[in-house]
C-alpha cells in the first residue's frame, strides 16, 4: 500500500503513514461522538507513521489515547495503550488525507450507539457494543491479561 501524507486543518501538524489495511472504519461510541460530533472515521496505520508539529495526546480510557493538533484542535489518531496484542495499534483520522486515502468503509463499531439521524450506505460489517467488548475481552485473555 502507498504511503499517505496529510495534515491538520491549520497545517501545523503533518502526518505520513502507510495503511495497515486499505480500509476505512467508523466508531459510534459515546466518546468518539463527543470528540467528533459524529462518527470517528479512521484508517488503520502500519507501524512507522510520523506526525510532526504540535501534537497533544489525551488518555481517554483505560485502554486508549487520542491525539490532536494543539493549534487548531484537529483530531489526529486513536491509539491502543492496553498491554498485549492490541498495544500500539493506531487508527489515523481519515480526514487528514485527501479523499480519506482512497479507502472504503468496511467496519462500524458500536452500531447500537449510532444516533438514528444518519446511516452509512453499504454492506460493511457492524459490531454492537457487546461485540466490541467481547473482542477486547478475548484479546486480553489471549494475552493473559484480566
Cα-atom Rg, whole angstroms?
15 Å
Q: Encode the helix/strand succession as letters.
A: EEEHEEEEEEEEH
- Regions with pLDDT < 50 over 5+ consecutive residues? none
Q: In percent, how helical is the residue content?
A: 10-25%
Proportion in β-strands: 25-35%
Quantity of strands, as a count: 11
Structural class: alpha+beta
Distance between the termini: 35 Å
Short characterization:
With 146 residues, the chain is an alpha+beta fold. The protein is 14% helix and 35% strand. The strands form two sheets. An eight-stranded mixed beta sheet has the order 6-7-8-9-4-3-10-11. It has a three-stranded antiparallel beta sheet with strand order 1-2-5, with no helix packed on it.
What report would you give on this structure?
This protein has 146 residues and is an alpha+beta fold. It is built from two helices and eleven strands. It has helices at 30-36, 129-142, and strands at residues 4-7, 14-17, 23-27, 40-45, 50-52, 55-59, 64-69, 75-80, 90-93, 104-109, 125-126. The strands form two sheets. The protein has an eight-stranded mixed sheet with strand order 6-7-8-9-4-3-10-11. It has a three-stranded antiparallel sheet with strand order 1-2-5, with no helix packed on it. 29% of the residues are buried. The model has no long low-confidence stretch (mean pLDDT 93).
Amino acid at each position: 500500500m502507498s504511503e499517505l501524507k496529510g495534515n491538520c486543518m491549520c497545517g501545523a501538524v503533518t502526518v505520513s503513514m502507510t495503511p495497515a489495511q486499505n480500509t476505512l472504519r467508523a466508531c459510534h461510541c459515546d466518546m468518539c461522538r463527543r470528540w467528533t460530533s459524529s462518527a470517528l472515521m479512521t484508517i488503520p496505520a502500519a507501524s512507522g507513521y510520523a506526525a510532526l508539529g504540535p501534537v497533544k495526546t489525551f488518555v481517554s480510557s483505560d485502554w486508549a489515547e487520542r491525539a490532536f493538533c494543539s493549534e487548531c484542535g484537529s483530531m489526529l489518531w486513536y491509539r491502543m495503550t492496553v498491554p498485549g496484542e492490541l498495544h500500539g495499534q493506531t487508527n489515523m483520522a481519515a480526514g487528514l488525507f485527501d479523499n480519506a486515502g482512497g479507502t472504503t468503509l468496511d467496519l462500524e463499531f458500536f452500531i447500537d450507539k449510532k444516533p438514528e439521524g444518519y446511516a452509512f450506505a453499504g454492506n460493511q460489517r457492524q459490531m454492537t457494543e457487546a461485540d466490541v467488548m467481547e473482542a477486547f475481552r478475548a484479546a486480553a485473555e489471549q494475552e493473559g491479561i484480566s
